[in-house]
Design goal:
The chain is mainly α. The chain has a single domain, classed as Four Helix Bundle (Hemerythrin (Met), subunit A), CATH 1.20.120. The protein is about 80% helix and about 0% strand. It contains 5 helices and no strands. Helix 1 runs parallel beside helix 4. The longest helix is centred in the N-terminal third of the chain and has 57 residues.
Length: about 160
Amino acid sequence: MQATTEATKSIEARISGEVWDRQQQWELKRDTLLETVRSVATFKNANFGVIAAFTAARRGEQTDPNLWAAKKTEVVDVWQKAQERFESAPLMTALLGDERINDALANLGVSLRQSYSAITKNAPEERFTEAMNRVNQYHHECIAATRSVLGLPDGDWPDYASIQ
């Protein structure tokens, strides 16, 4: 009887430990991916801020050079901070071992930097539009990969291609 009780307790402890380990792994995935999604959103929003400011300047809506210089400095600083935060995302998600997320993040980062470059260097609109289309594509891929790693069903996402 004592041997059975000890064996039962041992099995319960092992099962409890395994459940705890799985729970900890789940929480690490969740926390890592939530922080990654936040950094993606922050970077995209900062990119939209740059786009709005430089588009307004390009259209002649900003006529005061001092005000334009201050706004330009502000949006570029916000963009640079967001980029720095975003750059840590692939390092965090590498812990999860999912290449799909890391590839989508890398492609999204390149596309965001390309759209930034296109708008800040007054490139032709086609170059900017192509970069923004890629931003939207890779953003969708990041979300799909994140949902997959979390075990969530695929979702329908709005088409952000019209947001430029």
